TrEMBL record, chain A:
Entry's Gene Ontology molecular function annotations: ATP binding; ATP hydrolysis activity
Keywords per UniProt: ATP-binding, Nucleotide-binding, Transport
Family: Belongs to the ABC transporter superfamily.
Protein name: Manganese/zinc/iron transport system ATP-binding protein
Cross-referenced SUPFAM superfamilies: P-loop containing nucleoside triphosphate hydrolases (SSF52540)
Matches recorded under InterPro entries: AAA+_ATPase, ABC_transporter-like_ATP-bd, ABC_transporter-like_CS, Metal_Ion_Import_ABC, P-loop_NTPase
Annotated ranges, domain ABC transporter: 7-239
Protein's organism: Anoxynatronum buryatiense
Pfam families the record matches: ABC_tran
TrEMBL record, chain B:
Membrane spanning stretches: 12-33, 39-59, 66-85, 97-115, 144-163, 183-213, 225-246, 258-280
Name the record gives this protein: Manganese/zinc/iron transport system permease protein
Membrane topology recorded in Swiss-Prot or TrEMBL: Multi-pass membrane protein
Entry keyword Cytoplasm: no
A single GO cellular-component term on record: ATP-binding cassette (ABC) transporter complex
Location relative to the cell: Cell membrane
PANTHER family according to UniProt: ABC-TRANSPORTER METAL-BINDING PROTEIN, METAL TRANSPORT SYSTEM MEMBRANE PROTEIN CT_069-RELATED
Record family assignment: Belongs to the ABC-3 integral membrane protein family.
GO biological process annotation, one example: response to zinc ion
Main location, first listed in the record: membrane
Domain of life: Bacteria
Record's keyword terms, sorted: Cell membrane, Membrane, Transmembrane, Transmembrane helix, Transport
Length: 246, 375
C-alpha cells in the first residue's frame, strides 16, 4: 500500500435493488489533487462517495485511505453532503451546524469548548459567513447553506475532503469563492474529491477527473483523461450534446 | 386544605404521574417530530395492545410490569416488521406503517374481546389500555415513572450533542465517527419506553399524540432545539396534569382523550398565534407584503407617466394611472387607497382636483428600489 495515494478504491460494486449502480470500480487518487467525479444523472457519482464513506454497504470492494482502512483514517476525512439531504428548517443556527464539524474530535458525550467555538468562527470567516453565525439556518439562501456546509467540513481539519455537488444551486459568485477555498486546500497538500456537474468548468477547476457511468470510463489527470472520446463514452446513453472546450 | 378542594392525595399522585409522562414524551417527541418519524410512535403504541392481551392470557396476571413487557415485545416486533417491509419489499414506508398498525391493533381488539368473554378471567379491565385510565395507576406505578423520567431526561442531556447532530444530518454523523445505528437505537428505545409508561394513562390509540403534539407546538415558538425541547416538555407536563385532573373529576371520563384535548388546545394556539411561525402572523405579513407590492406598482405607473411627460412634476388624472382599474371614470377603491398611502409617505402629491404627480422623493424611491439595473 502506498502513502502517495490518498484514496484507492478497488473492485467496488454497489447495487440498490437488483441492478448495479456501480460496477467493478477501480480508482487511485494521488494525494494533493483536486478531483472531479463526472457523469450523467444516475451514473453513481454520489453512490461512489457514499460507498467510500461506508454510508452504503457495497456488494464488494475495498477502500484504502492513505495506506490503511477507512476506519483507521476516519478522523482524516471530511464530508460535505448534498445540500438537499437535510431539513434546513431544523431549529438551530449557523454556528451550531459548523460546530458539528468538531464533534468527531470530541467523541461521545463531551461538549464543545470555547476553543471549538473559536475554530468554528474561524471556518465561518473563511467562507465569508461570520456575520451569519447566529442566524437561524432556514433564513439562508442556497449559496449560504452550501458555505455553511463547507465551513463545517473545514472545521473537520481533514486530509481528504469528499464533497457531494457543492456547486448545486449556487450563484456564480459563491461558486468562485468555493473554488478559491478548494484550491487553497489543495495548495496545503489536502486531497479534494468533488461530485461535479458542469463539464464546462472541469478543466478550469480540477487537475484530476474520474469519468463514471455505472462503470469506470476513465480516471486520471484532466489533461490526459478529459477527452472528447471519453466524454462521448460517458454520456453515450443520455445523448447529451458535447462540445469540447478547445 | 387540598382535600377541601376535592383533591385527595391519590389524585395528586396520579396527576403528577401524568405530568411526568407528558414531560418525558414531550421532550423525546421533539426528536421524533424533527426526524419526521412521528407516526412510528403511533404504530408502536397500537401494536402494544395484542402484547398486553397475550401476556394476560399467558400469565393470567394483571401486574402492570408484565403486561407492559408484553406490550414492548409486540411494539418492537411491529416496528421491526415495518422497517423490514420498507427495506425488502416495494411497499412504501407509509403503507407499511398503516398496514402493520391496523393489523396489530385489530388483533389486539380481537384478543381483548375474547378475554372479556372468558368467565374465569377476573374482568381484567384490560380495555383501560385502549383509552387509558389514570386513576388505575398505583403509587407504585408513579414511583416507577419518576425513575424512568429521570433516566430518560438524563440520557437526553448526556447524549444531547449526538441526538441533535443525528436528527439534523445522519450521514454526516456517521462520517464524523458516531454509530448512527447506536444513536438510533438509543432514541427509538427511549421513545418506546416513554410510550410504554404512557399506555396505562393515555391508552394505545392516543399515546402518539403525546409524542407528536408537544414537539409540533413547541417548534412554533423557538428556533433553538434546547428551547423547543424544554417547551415541549412543559406543554406535555401541563397537559398531562390538567387532563388527569379533569378526567378524575368526571366519572368514567377516560384520561387519554382529556389529556389529548388539552394538548390540542396548546397546539392549536401555537400554530395560530406563535410569533414568526404562527399562521395568523404569516397571513398578516403576507397581506402587508402584497399590499406594499401593489402600492409600488401604482408608484411605478405614476413614475412612468411622469417620465413620459416633459414636466416630471405635471399632475395626471387618476384614470391615467391604471386605466383598466377605473370604473366609469372613477378610480377603484384599491387605487385610491394606494395613492393615499403613497401621498402619506411623501412619494406623490395630489392637487385639489384629485390629480396625481410624483414628488422628487418618489422618483428617488423608484430609482433606488424599483428599477432593476446593474449593481
Amino acid at each position: 500500500m502506498n502513502q502517495e495515494h490518498a484514496l484507492i478504491v478497488e473492485d467496488m460494486t454497489v447495487a440498490y435493488q437488483t441492478t448495479p449502480v456501480l460496477w467493478d470500480i477501480d480508482i487511485k487518487v494521488p494525494t494533493g489533487v483536486l478531483m472531479a467525479i463526472v457523469g450523467p444523472n444516475g451514473a453513481g457519482k454520489s453512490t461512489l462517495i457514499k460507498a467510500v464513506l461506508q454510508l452504503i454497504k457495497p456488494i464488494s470492494g475495498t477502500v484504502t485511505i492513505q495506506g490503511s482502512s477507512y476506519e483507521a483514517q476516519r478522523k482524516k476525512i471530511a464530508y460535505v453532503p448534498q445540500r438537499g439531504s437535510v431539513d434546513w428548517d431544523f431549529p438551530t443556527n449557523v454556528l451550531d451546524v459548523v460546530l458539528m464539524g468538531r464533534y468527531g474530535f470530541l467523541g461521545w458525550i463531551k461538549r464543545p469548548s470555547q476553543q471549538d467555538r473559536q475554530l468554528a468562527m474561524d471556518a465561518l470567516q473563511k467562507v465569508g459567513m461570520e456575520a451569519f453565525a447566529q442566524r437561524q439556518i432556514s433564513q439562508l439562501s442556497g449559496g449560504q447553506q452550501q458555505r455553511v456546509f463547507l465551513a463545517r467540513a473545514l472545521v473537520q481539519d481533514a486530509e481528504i475532503y469528499f464533497m457531494d455537488e457543492p456547486f448545486q444551486g449556487v450563484d456564480a459568485k459563491t461558486e468562485q469563492a468555493i473554488m478559491v477555498l478548494l484550491k487553497e486546500l489543495r495548495a496545503s497538500g489536502k486531497t479534494v474529491v468533488v461530485v461535479h456537474h458542469d463539464l464546462q468548468t472541469v478543466a478550469d477547476y480540477f487537475d484530476w477527473v474520474t469519468l463514471l457511468n455505472t462503470q469506470l470510463i476513465a480516471s486520471g489527470p484532466v489533461a490526459d483523461v478529459f477527452t472528447e472520446e471519453n466524454l462521448r463514452k460517458t454520456y453515450r446513453s443520455t445523448g447529451k450534446v458535447l462540445q469540447s472546450e478547445e | 386544605m387540598l382535600t377541601s378542594l376535592g383533591l385527595d392525595y391519590t389524585l395528586l399522585v396520579v396527576s403528577a404521574g401524568s405530568g411526568l409522562l407528558g414531560l418525558v414524551s414531550g421532550v423525546l417527541g421533539v426528536f421524533a417530530v424533527l426526524r419526521k418519524q412521528s407516526l412510528l410512535g403511533d404504530a408502536v403504541a397500537h401494536a402494544a395492545l395484542p402484547g398486553i392481551a397475550l401476556m394476560f392470557l399467558l400469565t393470567q396476571t394483571r401486574q402492570t410490569e408484565l403486561l407492559l413487557l408484553g406490550a414492548t415485545l409486540t411494539g418492537v416486533l411491529a416496528t421491526g416488521t415495518i422497517i423490514a417491509i420498507d427495506r425488502f419489499s416495494r411497499i412504501k414506508y407509509d403503507s407499511a406503517l398503516a398496514l402493520i398498525l391496523s393489523v396489530f391493533f385489530g388483533f389486539g381488539l380481537v384478543l381483548i374481546t375474547f378475554i372479556q368473554k372468558i368467565p374465569t378471567a377476573n374482568q381484567a379491565g384490560l380495555d383501560k389500555f385502549i383509552f387509558g385510565q389514570a386513576s388505575t395507576m398505583l403509587v407504585r406505578d408513579v414511583r416507577l415513572m419518576i425513575w424512568v423520567t429521570l433516566l430518560m431526561l438524563g440520557l437526553t442531556v448526556l447524549f444531547w450533542k449526538e441526538l441533535k447532530m443525528f436528527s439534523f444530518d445522519p450521514g454526516f454523523t456517521e462520517v464524523a465517527g458516531f454509530s448512527t445505528r447506536r444513536i438510533n437505537a438509543l432514541l427509538s428505545g427511549m421513545i418506546v419506553v416513554a410510550i410504554m409508561i404512557g399506555l396505562q394513562t393515555v391508552g394505545v390509540i392516543l399515546m402518539s399524540a403525546l409524542i407528536v403534539a408537544p414537539g409540533a407546538a413547541a417548534r412554533q415558538w423557538s428556533d433553538r432545539l434546547s428551547v423547543v425541547a424544554l417547551l415541549a416538555g412543559f406543554f406535555g407536563a401541563v397537559s398531562g396534569l390538567i387532563g388527569t385532573l379533569i378526567s378524575s373529576s368526571i366519572t368514567k371520563m377516560p384520561t387519554g382523550p382529556t389529556i389529548v384535548i388539552v394538548l390540542s388546545l396548546f397546539t392549536l394556539i401555537s400554530l395560530l398565534l406563535a410569533p414568526n411561525r404562527g399562521l395568523l402572523w404569516q397571513h398578516l405579513r403576507q397581506r402587508k407584503n402584497q399590499q406594499m407590492i401593489s402600492y409600488d406598482k401604482v408608484l411605478t405607473a405614476i413614475h412612468e407617466l411622469a417620465m413620459n411627460h416633459e414636466n416630471h412634476q405635471h399632475t395626471h388624472a387618476m384614470a391615467m394611472i391604471q386605466p383598466s382599474k377605473n370604473i366609469a371614470g372613477k378610480p377603484s377603491k384599491a387605487l385610491q387607497a394606494a395613492v393615499e398611502n403613497l401621498e402619506q409617505r411623501g412619494l406623490v402629491r395630489r392637487n385639489e382636483d384629485n390629480q396625481v404627480a410624483i414628488t422628487p422623493e418618489g422618483i428617488r424611491h423608484v430609482n433606488r428600489h424599483l428599477v432593476k439595473g446593474d449593481e
